């Protein structure tokens, strides 16, 4: 199970009630606090967005960062940012404006990093 919010890390939790420390590990990569996170239905990927609008794509099988998507402009102030998976192949982010991204259906089983496309 994953969680994030007002920290720079994504927390990975064990769902096994028999473990003494349920925090399994942390996925690091953001330099600013994370404001929102989403997981892709039926896909092994999650996306996070921080207070500067920087998006990180994570492979939850390997717990590794796959891609960083920079905002369209260099944000000097903290803003409310949000991210949401629309389906197993697309997500939308909001920082200064809405941006939509899509993973081509033929590439969904491969690494997301080389196939993510920005759709206006």
Explain what this protein looks like in three dimensions.
The protein has 120 residues and is mainly β. It has a single domain, classed as YVTN repeat-like/Quinoprotein amine dehydrogenase (Methylamine Dehydrogenase, Chain H), CATH 2.130.10.10. Helices cover 0% and strands 44% of the residues. The strands form 3 sheets. Strands 4-5-6-7 form a 4-stranded antiparallel beta sheet, with no helix packed on it. A hairpin with a 6-residue loop joins β1 and β2. It is globular, with a radius of gyration of 14 Å. The model has no long low-confidence stretch (mean pLDDT 81).
Q: What is this entry, summarized?
A:
By secondary structure, this protein is mainly β. It has strands at residues 2-3, 10-13, 23-27, 34-39, 45-50, 55-59, 64-69, 82-87, 90-94, 98-102, 117-119.
Architecture blueprint of SSEs:
Layout: E1 2-3, E2 10-13, E3 23-27, E4 34-39, E5 45-50, E6 55-59, E7 64-69, E8 82-87, E9 90-94, E10 98-102, E11 117-119
Features:
single chain, 120 residues, mainly beta, four-stranded antiparallel β-sheet, 11 strands, globular
In helices, the fraction of residues equals under 10%
Q: Give the overall pLDDT as a whole number.
A: 81
CATH level-4 homologous superfamily: YVTN repeat-like/Quinoprotein amine dehydrogenase
Uncertain spans: none
* The top level CATH class name: Mainly Beta
- Report how far the terminal alpha carbons are from each other: 32 Å
């Amino acid at each position: 199970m994953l969680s994030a919010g007002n920290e720079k890390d994504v927390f990975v939790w064990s769902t096994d009630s028999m473990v003494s420390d349920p925090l399994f590990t942390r996925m690091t990569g953001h330099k600013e606090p994370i404001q929102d996170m989403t997981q892709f239905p039926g896909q092994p990927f999650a996306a996070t967005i921080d207070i500067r609008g920087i998006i990180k794509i994570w492979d939850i099988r390997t717990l590794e960062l796959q891609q960083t998507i920079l905002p369209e402009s260099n944000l000097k102030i903290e803003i409310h940012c949000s991210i949401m998976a629309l389906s197993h192949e697309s997500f939308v982010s909001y920082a200064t404006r809405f941006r939509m991204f899509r993973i081509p259906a033929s590439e969904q089983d491969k690494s997301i990093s080389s196939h993510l496309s920005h759709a206006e």
